[in-house]
Amino acid sequence: MRKTAIILILLLFVTAKPMVYGMEREEIIDLAHFALEHQAPINSWQVTMKENITKQKAEDIVADFKYSSLDSRIENENVIKYIFGDVHKVEGIDVTYNVVIPQNEAFKPELIVVIEGTKWNENIEEAYVLRKEMIKDRFFTKSLKLFACLTVQQGGIMSSDVFMDDITKYFNVKHSTTQIDTIENSMHKKIIYGYTDLWKQNFMIQGTQMNLQIAIVADEEMNTTYTIGTPILIHEY
């Protein structure tokens, strides 16, 4: 179980449900508020926006960006990938645009936008919401899939059981299940899945709704890193 997230992404069927009290919640804001309220230092946060697009739209996006902010172009036998940095820099926030065009025309191109940072406060929160909505309105449709994750680190003072109990109560987590893995360099990894009705996206594992994944990695010095994601973690942790 080297990369559980990659295996489980094959099982991902994102579904929508009604918005809570007429408003769509911001998952990353919920995660950041939890970390701040529980005095858990934030190492990093990331929001990934993904959607399949037409080849024409992919080519139009590349044409719009390539003369101002092209970071790299990667080509192999499977895909051509363009990576663009955001020319409109906002303090505390980085945005990267990825346009992936398959060489095989039987597959659709994909637009992936990553919004990320290493700090969180009221100013960053406001800037994030404005930036995300601008990107969403300009590039995406209702078929957008959104993945959010936050990484915090604790020393040996707070046990993982206490931290997980706080998460469970804060987000009213249900259907919790745990996988444990021992990996190299005396690291211990625990993966926990659960469901909260606070967020609209979810996926199914063996007939059970899930939309919260937590990777807990502890080293031999009792430093513990928690990576909390919704509806699933899609990057290495």
Describe this structure in words.
26% of the residues lie in helices and 38% in strands. Mean pLDDT is 84; it is low at 1-23. The chain has a single domain, classed as 2-Layer Sandwich (TBP-like), CATH 3.30.2030.10. A ten-stranded antiparallel sheet has the order 2-3-4-5-1-6-12-11-8-7. The chain has a two-stranded antiparallel ribbon with strand order 9-10. The protein is an alpha+beta fold and 237 residues long. A hairpin with a 5-residue loop joins β11 (212-218) and β12. The longest helix is centred in the middle third of the chain and has 18 residues, at 122-139.
How would you name the CATH homologous superfamily?
Answer: YwmB-like
The helix fraction, in percent, is 25-40%
Poorly predicted ranges (pLDDT <50, ≥5 residues)? 1-23
Summed up, the domain count is 1
Morphology: globular
Percent range for β-strand residues: 35-45%
Per-chain topology:
Layout lengths: L3 H6 L17 H11 L4 E11 L2 H15 E6 L3 E7 L8 E9 L7 E8 L4 H18 L5 E10 L5 H12 L2 E10 L3 E9 L7 E3 L2 E3 L1 E7 L5 E7 L7
Antiparallel strand pairs: 1-5, 1-6, 2-3, 3-4, 4-5, 6-12, 7-8, 8-11, 9-10, 11-12
Features:
TBP-like; two-stranded antiparallel ribbon; alpha+beta; disordered N terminus; 26% helix; 237 residues; globular; ten-stranded antiparallel sheet
Describe what is shown at a glance.
It is built from five helices and twelve strands. It is α+β, with helices and mostly antiparallel strands and 237 residues long.
